[in-house]
# Entry
Amino acid sequence: MQKILIVDDVEMDREMLAEVMSRQYEVLQAKDGEEACGLIDCFGTRLSLVILDLLMPKKNGLDVLKHMEEHGLTAQIPVILLTGEATVESDVSAYEYGAADIMYKPFHSKVLLRRAQNLVELFEHRRATEHDLQVRTEELQNSKKMLASANEFLIDALGSVVEFRSLESGEHVQRVKKITRTILEYVNRYYPEYSMTGEEIEMISSAAALHDVGKIAISDDILNAPRRLTAQEFSEMKQHTVYGCEILNRFKLQENNFFHYCYDICRWHHEKVDGRGYPDGLKGDEIPIYCQAVSLADCFDALISKRVYKEAFQAKEAYDMICRGECGAFSDKILRCFTMAKDELFMLA
Amino acid sequence: MNLRECYAALDADYEDVMERFLREEVVLRFLRKLEQNPDYDRMLTAYEQKDYAGVFTTTHNLKGVCGTLGLKPLAKCFYDICEEVRYGAPGENFVPLVERVQQMYRATIDAISGLEE
# Structure
C-alpha cells in the first residue's frame, strides 16, 4: 500500500482526513511543519503524496514546501495543499513553492481521493520515465564509449600497418599519439589563441595515428631500404604525405572535424616553418599548430627509435638535437611547449 | 434522536457529511470528539483577554472542523468571527458574533449528547 503523509496542526482535522485517505493509502501523520520535515527527510520518495495544511505553528505549509524544494523533493513527491484559507496570494505562493495542487476545506472525499490518485500516478509515471531515460542514457553512453574504443582500435590498426611492413613493433603510432597529446595540452595552456577543447585534443591525437598511412603506397624497396635513399627514391618517399590524403579521400564519408584533422596531419606533418618542408612548402602559421605538434612528435619518436637505417638515440640527445635545429625548423611556440613538456616526454620515451 | 434528525434540527448537512465519511458510526465518533476539541475553550480565553490573534487561530481551526462535519451554520459563525479579527482589533459586531457562536455551539453539543448510540 502506498504511503502518504497528512500534515495538520488540528488533531480532529488530521484524524478526519486520515479516516478518508486510509481507504486507499497507508497514512502517516504530522502535527506541525517541523514534524513533517523530519518525516519527509526520513521517508523521502517512499512517500507517494503529502497533504499539507497551510496555517500551522512553528513551520507553516509554505515552509514545508520550501524545505522539500531545497531537498529536490517537490519534483519527486506530489503535495496537495489543503487549506481553509482561500486567497489568490496564498494560492500563487503555494504553486510557486512547488505545490502540485490546492484544495479547500471542507473537502469532498471523492474529489480528494481522485485527485490524490491522479497525482500519485502522474508522479510515479514521471519517476519511472526519468529512470528509464537515465538507464537509456547510460546505455547510450556505454555504446558510444564502445564505439569510440572500436574506432580508435581500427584507426590505430590502420596506422600501424605501415610499421609492421617496416618490421617495427607498432609502438611508434601509440607514442606519437601520446607525445602529440602532451604537447597540445601545453599549447592549450600557454597559447590561448589556439584554444582547443579536451575533445578536440583527443580527436587530433587519434588522427595522429594515421600520419604515415600514405606509406602503404610506398614500395618495400624504398620503405625498408637499409641505406640512404637516392634523390629519386627520397622524392617518392616524400609522396607518402600526398598518398595518405588520397587514401583518406577515397574513404571519406562526411566532411567533419575528424576527417579534416586526419587529412591535414597526413599532408602537412613534414612541413617546416621555414618553408623547407614538403609537400606544399608551407611557412610559419600556414602550418596548423596541431600539424606542427604531430610533426615534432613524429620527429622526436623517430630519433629515439631504432630503424633499419639507424640506431636509437637517447631521449636527452634527441631532445637536444631538435632544440639545436638539427631536425629542421620548428616554430618558437611549439618548441617552447616541447621544452616545457620535456620531463613528461622523457617518461613516455 | 437519530443522526439525520439531529442534523435536520441543527440545519446541518447530513448528505454532505455522509459523502465524506460513508458510515454514521464514523460521523458519530467525530461528533463526540468535537466537545473535547480544545480550540473552543482557547477561543473563549483569547476573547476574554482580547488576544485577537488567538481568536483568529482558534476560530479558523473550528470553522474547518465544523465544515468537515457538515455543521454549516456553526462553521459560518466561526467564519464570521475569524474574518472580524483577521486584520487585528474587531468592529462592533464582534461581541454579538461571539454570543451567537456560544449559543449555537451549546445547542450543537446538546444535540450531539442526545444522539442515540
User: Anything to note?
Assistant: Chain A touches chain B at residues 9-13, 15-16, 19-20, 55, 84-85, 105-110 (CB under 8 Å). The mean pLDDT of chain A is 93.
